[in-house]
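Question (not urgent): is this output format expected?
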Amino acid sequence: MQDNILTTVASLLANQRIGYAIRRLEKYMIDNNITSQRPRLVSVRDDYERMLDYYAKGYDDDKRAEVLNNIGSATYSIAADVLMGEWRRNRQPYIDSHNHTRNIDFSPESVGDTLRTYVTDLTMASLEIEEVRESRLEEIHKQHYDYMLLLFEYIVTSMQWSAAERDVYTSLLTSAETDINDALLIVSAITVANINIYDRRKFTVLVNVYRESDNDLVRERALVGWLLTAEQHSIPSLRQDELLEPLFADENIRKELLETQMQLIYCCHTDDATDIISKDIMPDIINNQQFQINKFGIIEEKEEDSINDILNPDAEDEKMEKVEQAFQRMVEMQKQGSDIYFGGFSKMKRYAFFYRLANWFVPFYTDHPELKGIKEKLRSVSVLNNIMNGAPFCDSDKYSLAFALSTVLERLPESIREMLDSDEAFSMGEKLEEFNTSTYKRRLYLMDLYRFFRLYDNAGAFANPFDIKDNATGCLFLASKAFSNPALTDCRNSLARFLYKKKYVGQLATLINSYNDTDSPAYLTYKAFISERDGDLLQAYNLLSQALEVNGEEPLLITLRALARVSVSSERWDEAAEYYSKLVARKPDNLFYQLNLDIARAKLCQYETAINDLYRLDITYDGNVSVKRVLAWVLLLAGRASQAKAILAGLTTSYTDTRAEDYLNMGYCHWIDNEIENAATAFASFLKAKKKELGGGKSIYEMITGEFDNDAQMLLIYNISPADVAAMRELVYYRLTN
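Got this back:
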């Protein structure tokens, strides 16, 4: 969203330049011939000048701070209404919504009466005789649906709320007398409204509903709402801290904030998950499935390939295993928080249903008037019930699925229609108990939000909190000033670890730049991660060393790990051995630390110490492949090639996770024993495996040259001359290119 008059005024108010904000707003209104808000601004300007006059005369006023806050808040409110007025005239969704709602009474009292009447009417209609009950219920649902579409549009395009609106909506959304679907839709309307133009009273409603609602679905929507709409400018006069500080003091709420922040970040990277599914996972499923779609659109089993079955009897099992692995990979992605359904359902949002703003957020319910025709086609409501209760999809995807089914239903065989009626039809392997967790409910709602901001035809008219621009993202709320409270320090540190682990380094940079304490070990450590990513190992090492000094006797584990890693990358082997020794002392059961310590020892020519420890680890970890791999490498460096060769023979023939480096080291062992043909074959196997692992990039010649150069010192130990190296390089290259 481009800068506008509200952005300008908000920035000035954030710096407590209230008088200048008033003057800038007044000039803007004069230049653009905006008269509707002039009386309000004149009144605020007069109050401000009167306050300054009293102050200049030396009057003591213990209410001065409160007066300034009220003036600042009123100035912001006027600027927000000026901007909303412009959008109602110039932005198509706002134009349409305002035109739909401008002549309807949406006063707080009227809204409350309408919502309560709806619940009463449903109760009364359910008592009618059977002959009239269904038609009466349909009529009530249709009238109320039309009303809720308009109420949603009214809220999204409403001016700044009054205290009465704040109180009435808070009461309605936390009342057991309000229909749950109505409450959910209103919370979403307030959220969309506040993402675009912040309103402190709308924000207060979201916070209060989050704190007071007894319904998990309503509570989770309200949580997402206030997290995404917390005022980024932290304008003192809006007194947002008064609402947020009690929340930040609650440990359980802090956990929810961190969890929600991680879920939002997964949403921001939905395209990454979609690419993995479309390019890596789906080809395995499609290429190895035992079914095909015939020319009539009917799924049928493929005919068995009898010749292939004879030549490769294990092929079918291998195909099934690949399909199972592909599905399992998607399940794991979903458990971590990825949106695995976006790619498929993004192509199913062209139905007329999605032309109305509210329908992107309306909960899926079988009595929705837009589903009437589908129910008639289905001949049974159980399919819609199964979609509502069993499908692991967000609400907008459930509507997409229902509409898609209605278009093909009549062409489906009776057996498929019966299957759709079964309870397992849309379960997708999900467990019911998972459906009931707050985490799961929140994830589905975030999927609805994400689809709206990505796929709605007029989404460009709204600020998208999921946009990632440069090194920033609107959904990274923990990096904003509104969340700079010291109580959230551990949340920020946990988030930084998460971002680094997921390699979301741009967002990590944004987060650490928001830290207030730039001398803290956490800040210095995460800053070092950015330097390491950028290839500045010296800067990374210096920052980590500084973090170590600040932390004193008990450094952060993550700092020690990073120091050890950077020491290895920059070939500071003395320091690497020191830091891995400390890590082993802290975590004696961590095999990774122990192996890296022995690697550092080997680099320092402490061969016997490393070898003795590796033999101990080989016994302790019962022939662990990683231990054997490092042991063989150290034995090779120590001049004990025959022992290394025996271990490598097993690694390259008996284990399923043979790595490219195993063939390289085996080649060295053959070379040392003057088994030139075997050495060349092993080196060729190394290059093939390495090329497959790395993809493009270096040529075969460059790769083998680089490896021989890296290991030149070791080759000299075994009297392999530069001429031998040149000849072997040519032999391997010739074998692979001819």
